[in-house]
Amino acid sequence: MRDVGFLVVLLGLFPLVTQAQNADALLNEGSYREARAAFSDSLYGINIEGYFETYLQTGAYQAGLRRAQQLLRNTSQPAYVNYAIGRLHTVTGSWNEAEAAYLAAIQAKNDYWLAGLELAELYRQRGNSRQAQRLYSVINTRLRQGGFTTALGLAIGARAAMRLGDHHEANEAFSTALRLDANNVQVILWYGDLYRITYDEAFAKDLYERALGINSRRANIYVKLAAVTGSYAQKEELAEQALRITDGFAPALALKAKLHLLDGDFPEAVSVARQALDQNPGSIDAWAHFAAAQHMQGAIEAVSQAETAVLELTTRPTSFYRIISEDLALRFRYPDAATYAQKAVEAHPDDAAANAAYATALMRLGEVESARAYMERSYYRDAFNLYAANTLSLLDALDEFATLTSQHFTLRIHEDERHVLGPIMLREAERAYEVLQSYYGYEPEDRILLEAYNDADDFAVRVAGVPHIGLLGVCFGDVVAVNTPAAISESRYNWARTLWHELAHTMTVGLSNYRVPRWLTEGLSVYEEVRANPAWKRDLELQFFTAYDQGRLHSLEDIDRGFTRPTFQGQALLSYYHAYRVIEFVVDEYGFDVIMDLLKSLASGQSESTAIQNAIGISREALDTAFRAHLDQERDRLDPVLRGWPDMLTEELHGGNLREYLAGRGESSFYDLLTEGEEALEAGNLDDAESAYSMALDIYLDYTGPGNPHEGLAEVYRRRGQITELAQVLRNHLAGYPYGDAQAVELAGILLQRTDTTQAVGYLTRSRYTQPYDANVLGQLAKLYADLGQHAQAVEMRRAILALNPVNRAEAQFALATSLYHNRQMTEAKRAVLQSLEIAPGYREAQRLLLKIVDGDE
Predict the structure, then answer these.
(1) Which of 51, 103, 636, 680 to pair with 42, CA 20 to 30 A apart?
(2) In this structure, how many other beta carbons lie within 10 angstroms of the beta carbon of residue 443?
(3) 3-class SS of residue 498
(4) Quick one: angle between helices 844-857 and 809-822, nearest 10?
(5) pLDDT > 70 in the chain, percent
(6) Of the ranges 265-269, 562-566, 696-700, the best mean pLDDT one
């Protein structure tokens, strides 16, 4: 009879179990309304968790709290209801109430591991690390003893192991959990978090996307994805998607506040951060973005109020200060960023992220040795931190760099390039400083630190800690880092132009007291490139007006978005040119003095719009309108060039390979003439090619991209042997082309045939801006300098040749010794000739030179 009764009970429970399983599946896939209805039929045990999870995932926090309080009065299982109340209070920033609810849940059910984990997480946020560690350890012990057998239980244990720093144990437990339940979204997300905090963002992203494939209606998945997405445009879209799912979702609003801050829209950043805080006053991220935006506006009292609010939430506001530091660095406020990073370390000296942030901030200020200590501390606390490991490796490599100094610069350059690039780079830097300082009047307190990297990955680590970020140079104020051509071997690169660009940043960032908007400092840097050397002008005019025709240029108010969140291929690069054209227009219309007034107004703390109004006399909107009216006039001039031309933005997308387009026929005369010239040249019809290319140049001189008429005409004259005409075409081409080392060397050769030594030296030197490693060019320059009696320069060239490890090293040492001898550097000449003879003892010329040196010494 008892057996029959037991079967009846089992049969009676079976529908309820099935129903609960269905409810769990509905919750897991994001069908929250249906899941709530299914759970409500049996509000018992863990079904209560699932029931209130539907309120959490839909942002119905207050409704959930009201329902939970109502249920708490009538339930026989208060543990689960109190757990739900704790969760709801946590996401609404009521941390005291959340703590009390979690404790009540655990008191009612002392093996409530999920409540214990959430309480530990809350303690961690509040800075109660000892209590948090104790709870994590209890849960971890349970894991090690085999006490967890379900997927969620194992994930709870794995989460605790992760917090204790046992990442290998956490990984094993998460893997086992997913073998038990491969589609459990919560387990997948926690597993993704493990890979995110151990800096394997690619695998974390895979896991988050896997979770998204199961449940696309869970807002926090989008925010987690944004955290491992490098593109700010994608971050913004992910935040918007989260908000479409859960209106007012605080983490998504906090992310949007950061993006507004990145754009320099500080009032909007404050507004959106406030919205996040209205939803969750316990959002440390939102408080940090709020404080950073207020700091940028000079609202120090508001920053202090935010700090007070955070200190009421947590005794360790480490992440608050660290996030402020990161935000300030996004807007070039490097000294202030260092101050807040230091506060983060002071709040928690053992925090790995805080130490790394402070080390990074110190490096940006040039305090490399102090930075090393904090980065070592960070790496000791978190050995998974690839950024810390890469940075420490870079600092070790920097110990091997040579240090050269001039009046205004300290140059750190790889020993291999010390003699090849060091002297010419310092000369170019001093020339740039003299010119730019005369314009802007900014004087750094100490020498500008200039770092030159011959490895792109080393440079990327110096800039951000992650290789392959694709920058050519960076300025942190009075600290500048650039690549050398050895680091950019697969593409055209003019290191001198990049150097001028970054030093112009030094001036504008310094003069504005680190308050210059991104578009303004970038536009001025490009403007100074052109002012320094018209040949350095960027050949983007056709792409620029194509974007203008297509309505793809941002307004002046939103121009920074083109740099940070490009929406089409090449927009970031085009934004530099856009900003340059704005500066060019302002200077032409109002004079360069308004630029100085604008930078000084920004330095005084004025907002961008106010500074423009005060400096130029019109609003930012009116300036943008006037600029676009100017572009309309310019566009008329280019109409014959652009009509029928392939979409230049599409060309950019396909790598700028115009030759692929030249098989077609365009409607415009310019494009048609390029096509005719190309076809005639390929057919050997030089007269027709010359005619077509000449007429193309009459229409438009500035195009220097693939298939340009300069190169076409040059080839015509080479084939004919018309040296005079070839020389003129090469001159014209180089006058508007920032690269062209081969053309410069070719032109120098023609000039030398005419005994025009001075100009030949100029063009050979110019070739070193893009190709400094050509031993033949260095040898030519050495001979020419010797002929001109400029023996110090000849010595420099000979040292550079030796640094390139020539095959005949004995001859190179002898040539150096000869130049040193003529420069009256007898001791060094003797050493060089002895090194030559050590390699080739029978070298007669070296022996004779040694005798002359010895005789001279006597």
Answers:
(1) 103
(2) 11
(3) helix
(4) 30
(5) 94
(6) 265-269
Neighbouring residues of 666: CB distance < 8 A, sequence distance ≥ 6: 643, 644, 645, 646, 672, 675
Q: Which two tokens stand for residue 98?
A: 């959340």
Rounded to 5°, angle at Cα 643 from 640 and 645: 115
CATH number at residue 434: 3.40.30.160
The answer to whether the CB of 813 falls within 8 A of the CB of 526 is no
**423-467 pLDDT, tens per residue?**
999 999 999 999 999 999 999 999 999 999 999 889 988 887 544
Give Cα separations from 305 to 279, 294, 295, 310 (angstroms).
18, 11, 12, 9
Domain span holding position 409: 400-499
- CA 199 vs. chain centroid, Å, equals 17
Q: One-letter amino acid identity for 396?
A: D
| Whole-angstrom distance, CA of residue 605 vs CA of residue 512 | 9
Is 402 in a helix, a strand, or coil? strand
Rg (CA), the chain: 34
Q: The domain spanning residue 50 has which CATH number?
A: 1.25.40.10
Take residue 42 and report the two structure tokens written for it. 């049996």
Pair type for strands 409-413 and 402-405: antiparallel
688 near 659, Cβ under 8 Å? no
Residue 554: DSSP 8-state: P
CA 138, CA 157: separation in Å to the nearest integer?
A: 9
Quick one: CA dihedral 490, 492, 496, 499, positive or negative? negative
CA 554, chain centre distance (Å): 21
Cα distance between residue 163 and residue 802, in whole Å: 55
Secondary structure (H, E, C), 502-547: HHHHHHHHHHCCCCCCHHHHHHHHHHHHHHHCHHHCCCCHHHHHHH
Contact predicate 186/217, CB 8 Å: no
- pLDDT tens readout for residues 514-528: 999 999 999 999 999
Could you tell me if 486 and 520 lie in one domain? Answer: no
| Domain identity same for 537 and 423 | no
What value does the mean pLDDT of the chain take? 92
Among 78, 110, 142, residue at a domain's last position: 110
Check whether 54 has a pLDDT greater than 90: yes
Q: What angle do CA 320, 326, 330 make, to 5 degrees?
A: 140
Whether pLDDT at 64 is above 80: yes
pLDDT, tens digit, for every residue of 77-98? 999 999 999 999 999 999 999 9
Dist. CA 12–CA 26, nearest whole Å = 23
The residue type at 493: Y
Q: How many CB atoms lie within 10 A of CB 630?
A: 16
- The Cα angle at residue 289 between residues 284 and 292, in degrees rounded to 5: 120
Q: How far is CA 793 from CA 423, 761, 764, 765, 816, in A?
A: 10, 11, 13, 11, 11
How many other C-beta atoms lie within 10 A of the C-beta of residue 393? 12
Give the model's confidence band at 340: pLDDT under 50 very low, under 70 low, under 90 confident, else very high.
Answer: very high
pLDDT band at 655 (very low <50, low <70, confident <90, very high): very low
- Answer positive or negative: Cα dihedral of 131, 134, 140, 141: negative
| Same domain for 33 and 83 | yes
Which 3 state secondary structure label does DSSP give 480?
strand
Given the DSSP bridges, would you call strands 409-413 and 479-483 parallel, antiparallel or unpaired?
unpaired
Task: Please count the structural domains in the chain.
Answer: 4
Q: Can you state the percent helix, strand and coil of the chain, rounding each to 5?
A: 70, 5, 25
Q: Could you give the CA distance from residue 233 to residue 225 in angstroms, rounded to a whole number?
A: 13
Rounded CA separation 643/638 (Å): 8
562 phi and psi, to 5 degrees?
-65, -30
Structure tokens at 591: 């004079």
Does residue 447 sit in the same domain as residue 528? no
Q: Do 608 and 576 sit in the same domain of this protein?
A: yes
Phi, psi dihedral angles at 414 (to 5 degrees): -55, 140
pLDDT of the residue at 672: 84
